[in-house]
Specification:
The chain has a domain of 143 residues: Rossmann fold. The strands form five sheets. The chain has a 20-stranded parallel sheet, with no helix packed on it. Strands 29-28-30-31-32 form a five-stranded parallel sheet, with helices on both faces. Strands 15-17-19 form a three-stranded parallel sheet. It contains 18 helices and 32 strands. The protein is of the alpha/beta class.
Length: 728
């Protein structure tokens, strides 16, 4: 009995392994098992301890059973997102003590059970968003997840967060809550988490925004709020507490502001002394900049050092006020980015109060030279070191240089992707300028307008045909995508350490061009170094591929199959069966030449001499001479009421019969008709039938066929059955 039990267990395991191999071939011999998007309705059996990653995403799994993952004890990652999971047995994940990533997002879970996660002591990343649960339950589902690093939860139905829902979690690198329809938040619910590096919350209900922010001031480093309509908040965001604030960055994404709400927010955010960075991305401002500057000024100094505004839409932006009265709020700001927001000017009075600003990014806006004169007026931006004016509407390089020369500490200037078109012979630049980006500015040449103080120069993507400037301090030169035919001389740029000349028209490099200067490293593609060799290799490879295709086509008769398929497609346009008046034969006979003796001397005599006689179509006798074989087959099948297949070992091994059966397979079986009659002349091994004839295999397994018997009495019954089938 013990031996029998062991045998049964081994047999069951072997069966499961075979089933797993069929359902998901990648699992059979690999630690990483990818079964995504294969239409599975259940977790395949046979998972073993060697598998560390199991991807079952994008299937149709509805239920996870206790036994499904019992043997997968080494799993590190389990991906089950985008299925239809609505129920999970409570101990389904119990064996997965080593699991680090669990993704159950975008399923149909209506509730979360703490028991599911009770033994996942190693879990670091948990994704639960996109299900249908409305809350997290009365207690915390995460009590055992002491190593959790990132948590993503919430959905369109998620509406309640209760106190105690996050008990057990102390530290998180990232927390993402989809609370688009969150309507109830119990104060203090998020306070149990001591530290969160980055929190994202989608929140449309502005009434609970302040409550959530108050709970997060002491735990979150970076808070990102999405989809909010910023409320007008009267109460302070800061509670009476001796704990130091932790929050340093606050980001609004896809949010809606009004003049009133943004004025009040500026005042309230000043109370958060730890806040150093504000961001607004893809937001909308309904207003004209008519902010309550008196209240803002009287509320004290802001501690924010970095402000980033990207793609903010201001309706009627041309009517926007110049923010007069905000001067006292900006003198501590160090970094300012306003990009893709249709900025066309900064008032001189305001610009002069950015006394501490080191970095200014105005790329992708509407600045023109006339407005730039106002924006960079005398005394403005006194500490500025880096200025980005790329992707604007500047037209005059001479004026742009002149205006930037008013910046006494400017070190890095990016004016790329402006359409200057021309370059003057002489320009006035800041004496401190070291980095200049003039790429994609349509300049046709380089002149002494380029400052001698530069250490890095980028003039890529212009129409330069030569470069002959003398720049004694230059260390890096970028000349990509120009029309250069020769390298720039080495003597005028003696300190050069990096040179990029990709995508030019260089034909050759001479030793004299380097004048003895040692080149430390050159980064050229294989095509650039050995163009002729690469082209030759490609030609040889193409020739070999064509030769291989011809050989494969010849071996597997590809041309014949293509011609047959074309004939079949033409035949498909015809009626599936000829009209009764066009039927010439009772049956078309498909057989092997090795079986011709039985067919022609036995079957034909028996059927054609019967009373009444049957008219048979044989390829030897009835095919039209000179007509293509496929057309003969098509016409004969269409003009016959039935098709007789005389099956034998010779039949399935004959190339000719395979061709004939191929077409019959298309024409007969794909139409799901009942015109085929199978005669088994001798026993055939199932494996001898070509695998591609799956429908033929199925018919032989499900449909009665006539087997030629050895005895004479049984043969008489055979003929009667065959005649009856032909008459039906």
């Amino acid at each position: 009995w013990q031996v029998l039990a062991i045998y049964m267990v081994l047999a069951a395991n072997l069966s499961e392994q075979q089933e797993l191999k069929q359902a998901c071939p990648s699992c059979y011999a690999s630690r990483i098992c990818n079964c995504s998007s294969v239409g599975l309705d259940f977790i395949p059996p046979g998972l073993t301890a060697k598998i560390t990653v199991l991807n079952l995403a994008h299937n149709r799994i509805k239920h996870i059973r206790s036994q499904d993952l019992q043997q997968a004890v080494s799993l590190r990652a389990l991906l089950l997102q985008s299925n239809k999971i609505s129920s999970i047995d409570e101990d389904s994940f119990q064996p997965l003590a080593k699991l680090e990533l669990l993704d159950l997002s975008n399923n149909s879970l209506a509730h979360l059970s703490p028991v599911w996660f009770g033994h996942l002591f190693s879990l670091q990343h948990l994704h639960l968003q996109g299900n249908s649960y409305r809350d997290l339950g009365e207690s915390s589902p995460f009590l055992s997840l002491r190593n959790l690093s990132s948590l993503h939860l919430g959905n369109a139905q998620f509406s309640v967060i209760r106190q105690g829902n996050f008990e057990g979690i102390e530290l998180l690198h990232k927390l993402w809550i989809d609370g688009s329809n969150l309507s109830q938040y119990e104060q203090g619910s998020l306070k149990s988490i001591k530290k969160i590096d980055h929190m994202i919350i989608n929140l449309k209900n502005s009434n609970i925004f302040s409550e959530i922010v108050r709970d997060l001031l002491y735990s979150v480093t970076w808070l990102e709020v999405r989809e909010i309509k910023l409320p007008f908040e009267e109460k302070s965001l800061v509670q009476n507490s001796t704990h130091p604030f932790r929050i340093q960055r606050l980001t609004f994404k896809e949010a809606l502001f009004t003049d009133q709400s943004i004025s009040r927010a500026i005042v309230l955010l000043k109370e958060i002394t730890s806040l150093k960075e504000l961001q607004a991305i893809d937001c909308v401002l309904e207003g004209k900049g008519k902010w309550n500057t008196d209240e803002i000024a009287s509320s004290g100094q802001s501690f924010v050092e970095t402000v980033t505004i990207i793609n903010v839409m201001i309706q009627n932006f041309h009517l926007f006020f110049d923010l007069d009265g905000m001067e006292s709020q900006i003198n501590k700001l160090k970094r300012l980015t306003i990009s893709s927001s249709k900025v066309f000017m900064v008032a001189c009075k305001l610009a002069q109060h950015f006394s501490s600003l080191l970095y200014l990014d105005f790329h992708d806006n509407l600045l023109v030279n006339r407005r730039l004169n106002e924006t960079i007026c005398k005394g403005s931006w006194p500490s500025l070191e880096t200025l980005n004016l790329s992707q604007n509407s500047l037209k005059s390089l001479k004026e742009t240089a002149e205006y930037t020369s008013r910046l006494p500490k400017l070190n890095n200037l990016d004016i790329s992707q402006n359409n200057f078109g021309e370059i003057p012979d002489v320009c006035v630049w800041p004496n401190t300028l070291k980095y200049l980006n003039l790429s994609s500015t349509q300049i046709p040449k380089v002149t002494n307008c380029i400052p001698q103080t530069l250490e890095v120069l980028d003039v890529s993507a212009n129409n330069l045909k030569e470069f002959g400037l003398q720049l004694p301090l230059l260390k890096e030169l970028y000349l990509t995508k120009n029309q250069l035919k020769t390298l720039p001389g080495a003597a005028p740029i003696p300190n050069l350490v990096a040179l990029s000349v990709r995508r030019n028209k260089l034909n050759s490099l001479s030793k004299e061009e380097f004048e003895g200067t040692q080149v430390g490293s050159v980064h050229l593609s294989l095509m650039e170094c050995h163009r002729s060799l690469v082209v030759s290799l490609i030609c040889v490879l193409v020739f070999l591929v064509i030769l291989l295709l011809v050989a494969v086509g010849y071996k597997y008769h590809v041309v014949w199959y293509l011609r047959m398929t074309w004939a079949w497609l033409r035949a498909k346009r015809k009626p599936k069966r000829a009209p009764p008046k066009d039927i010439c034969y009772d049956a078309f006979v498909s057989y092997s030449e090795n079986d011709s003796d039985w067919v022609e001397n036995t079957m034909v005599r028996e059927l054609e001499q019967a009373c009444p006689p049957f008219r048979l179509c044989l390829h030897k006798r009835d095919f039209v001479p000179g007509k293509w074989i496929v057309d003969n087959i098509i016409d004969s099948i269409e003009k016959s009421r039935k098709t007789l297949f005389v099956l034998s070992e010779h039949f399935v091994q004959s190339e000719w019969c395979k061709y004939e059966l191929d077409f019959s397979h298309f024409r007969l079986f794909d139409e799901n008709n009942d015109a085929a009659i199978l005669i088994l002349l001798e026993p055939i091994q199932s494996k001898a039938i070509p695998k591609r004839f799956c429908k033929l295999r199925k018919i032989m397994n499900t449909k009665t066929y006539l087997e030629w018997p050895a005895g004479e009495e049984q043969q008489q019954v055979f003929w009667e059955n065959l005649k009856g089938a032909l008459k039906s």
